[in-house]
Amino acid sequence: MLDGKTIIVVAADQGLRRSVAFALEVEGYYTESYDSVQKSEASCREALCAIVDDDILRTEPQAAAQFLSNRGGRAILLVDGLSALQPPVDYATLTKPFTGADLLGVINSLVVAAK
To answer: How does it assemble?
Structure first.
């Protein structure tokens, strides 16, 4: 069951999903992880936010763009330094590699902005 402390992690790479989920669970968040945007859609409605790896934009470009814009500012896109994306409008970005503290800082800023 989802609640206000559940964070959805969407990444094609299983290792990245596990690492992000572990970092969040250590801090007391619940996580649900998915390897595609389509599989995560239903869970995102009640989640605190969604974290999406930019590789998903390459494999599901239209679905991922729609997914990010539908989160109402409650999304974080994980990008590498070489990602050539337009400036985000409705989501935050976090550049890889990042630390757990970096990730928590972005999540906390989303929570504050949502209040």
So the answer is: Interacts directly with FixL.
Give the residue carrying structure tokens 């970092």: 23
**Integer Cα distance of 8 and 56 in angstroms:** 14
For residues 101 and 26, the answer to whether their CB atoms sit within 8 Å is no
Across 76-92, average pLDDT: 73
Residue written as token pair 């679905």: 63
Per-residue model confidence as pLDDT tens digits over 52-76 = 999 998 899 899 888 888 887 889 9
- Which residue in this structure is represented by tokens 């337009």? 86
Judge if pTM exceeds 0.85: yes
Residue 97, preceding peptide bond in cis (omega within 30° of 0): yes
Domains of the chain: residue spans and CATH: 6-114 (3.40.50.2300)
